Amino acid sequence: MMSWKDVSKTQPKASQLLTSSMRRSRLSHAYVFQGPQGAKKEDTAMVFAMSLFCHHKTGVEPCGSCPDCKRVRSGNHPDLHVLSPDGASIKIDQIRALQKEFTYTSMEAGYKFYMIRQAHLLTVQAANSLLKFLEEPGQQTIAVLLTDRPSRLLDTIISRCQCISFQPVSMDALTAELVEAGAGALKAHLASALTQDVQAALRMTEEEWFATARNVVIQLEKAIADHSGEALAIVQEDWVPLAKDMENPSLLFDILLLWYRDLLMVHSGQTNRLFFPDQQECLERQSLRQSKAKTAAHVAVILETKRHLEANANMQLLVEQLVFRLQEG
């Protein structure tokens, strides 16, 4: 269960601003929580809602165990309304239904709270309808709009809301959260470099392809470093079949880039924060055979290959060509 103490660890500015406003009873009627995916915007909104509805809080910290807190967490509180996109957009009928709901008196004789996920997906009609709602807020009504693309919100909506910026969760904080959730340290550290979204990272560490991908990259790099003909076999028998089973095969290239990032760190003598710490000896041997300049050039080659992949080029042909170019160096 999230609390303001938890929020303050990853989003101290947002936590301080909201808790201070509650203590001074100076809440805005509408907020825009803007920031990248995984920045705890929705978690913060839920803690905010619990603070408003909880009758057993300590200061502004909700107790987390009373019926109101439990109903907020489960999404069943009668005065909490969460709006999500219907398909590719948020439609005017959804906003009209929300407006109708808010004409009724609060079920608990207190605040009414609504949260709109991915608010940048409001259609023009829905956004204009919401604007009228924001211009004439009811008493003790709080709106929170969540977005990672604030530039796509109407300026007139932005001007009627208090905007709070959320920063990306730090890699160390994300790694610690993943480990606490049960992910192994090696997987957690690697996943934290591939996404800033805690839930996406946790799913990644639990999926079979993730451990396989890490192992395939290690075996491929060992074969490349040894100028072994096994490298092409690894591409054909391991890399390509794995890529076909992955929702986002470009992540394989991202993991490969992290190997070369580690190689550059070894060249610089900074081995305390490697993404492949269990492969340090192998990285050190490779660094003796390959200059720092050549390693940087290989990074450019991998990035170029990844761009070709995004243009729908043939995966096997691309990776085979990549192997040849890396072994030439």
Automatic annotation (TrEMBL):
<dbReference type="InterPro" id="IPR027417">
    <property type="entry name" value="P-loop_NTPase"/>
</dbReference>
<dbReference type="GO" id="GO:0009360">
    <property type="term" value="C:DNA polymerase III complex"/>
</dbReference>
<feature type="domain" description="DNA polymerase III delta subunit C-terminal">
    <location>
        <begin position="249"/>
        <end position="327"/>
    </location>
</feature>
<protein>
    <recommendedName>
        <fullName>DNA polymerase III subunit delta'</fullName>
        <ecNumber>2.7.7.7</ecNumber>
    </recommendedName>
</protein>
<keyword id="KW-0235">DNA replication</keyword>
<dbReference type="Pfam" id="PF09115">
    <property type="entry name" value="DNApol3-delta_C"/>
</dbReference>
<dbReference type="Pfam" id="PF13177">
    <property type="entry name" value="DNA_pol3_delta2"/>
</dbReference>
<dbReference type="GO" id="GO:0003887">
    <property type="term" value="F:DNA-directed DNA polymerase activity"/>
</dbReference>
<keyword id="KW-0239">DNA-directed DNA polymerase</keyword>
<dbReference type="InterPro" id="IPR015199">
    <property type="entry name" value="DNA_pol_III_delta_C"/>
</dbReference>
<dbReference type="InterPro" id="IPR004622">
    <property type="entry name" value="DNA_pol_HolB"/>
</dbReference>
<keyword id="KW-0808">Transferase</keyword>
<dbReference type="GO" id="GO:0008408">
    <property type="term" value="F:3'-5' exonuclease activity"/>
</dbReference>
<dbReference type="GO" id="GO:0006261">
    <property type="term" value="P:DNA-templated DNA replication"/>
</dbReference>
<dbReference type="GO" id="GO:0003677">
    <property type="term" value="F:DNA binding"/>
</dbReference>
<keyword id="KW-0548">Nucleotidyltransferase</keyword>
<dbReference type="InterPro" id="IPR050238">
    <property type="entry name" value="DNA_Rep/Repair_Clamp_Loader"/>
</dbReference>
